[in-house]
Amino acid sequence: xxxxxWYALLGLFLAGYLALDGITLGTGxxxxxxxRDDAERHTVAAATGPFFLGNEVWLVAAxxxxxxxxxxxxxxxxxxxxxxxxxxVGALLTREAAVQFRRRVxxxxxxxxxxxxxxxxxxxxxxxxxxxxxxxxxxxPVKGGRLDVxxxxxxRPVPVLSALTALAxxxxxxxxxxxxxxxxxxxxxxxxxxxxxxxxxxxxxxxTAAAAVADGRARDGLLxxxxxxxxxxxAVAALLLASxxxxxxxxxxxxxxxxxxxxxxxxxxAAHFPQAVVSTAGAHENVSVAEAAADPGTLSVVxxxxxxxLPVLLAFQAMQWWSFRxxxxxxxxxxx
Length: 336
Description:
By secondary structure, the chain is mainly α. It contains 14 helices and 4 strands.
């Protein structure tokens, strides 16, 4: 029972990361196309700047739970997907440096160069998270509790389509956020872009699902097809609804698009449970949630730490979003 609770907490932190940092990822991907001049680029930076570092705390917390509470996942997923995860972490660090450096030297050319770096690494991050989710959605090569993934696994149709879907969903999530949280030309273009992106993102999500059903290896990972299908339908509906809400600058729009951004965590959990990783070698090689979890003694040590951190994290996020609830414009303060 306790391992299931900790597994849900791990899912909560991963979902929180995708929902919140998905905004800054998407802004990095598409923000340069929405802002036409320095004033509008200032507006975009002001809208996302206050949330930039706080969003990544969710990923750090998820990594901590994985390492402390689920050593079986650390030895299988992290070790097996090592190249993808290293590339993603490298992109994260590069993004941090680029965002910090872009305002250290005055001059439009200097900022444009670092904005290009931010855009490239955000595209790489979105593709990496999408590839990772697409690969883990199906059955993967697991033997003796260890994951052995070669490039051929990551280049199968489902991971590739999943990567493109993640790129479109994060970009849509950002346009929905900017349509609601900015004013002027940025808001107008963001709402218009969201209307165009929504059908493309929804179509890619459906195409990825169709590829998963057609691919025997991916289909083998769908142990619970009914809840998985229902969650997929809800995510597709959220993509289409969010763009409509953004057109009216409804405050609920980013919440709806956030559900679509975090949906992969729910889909993987629903598809596999009570297994954490499904093996292509057969059910005897699956890594269950119980097998991946640490022993009860370890969980009892990790537990108080998580129970202390979670309320503080939630309170900080609530305070942060409340403090910066007003719309941004070219006169708003920029933190990076």
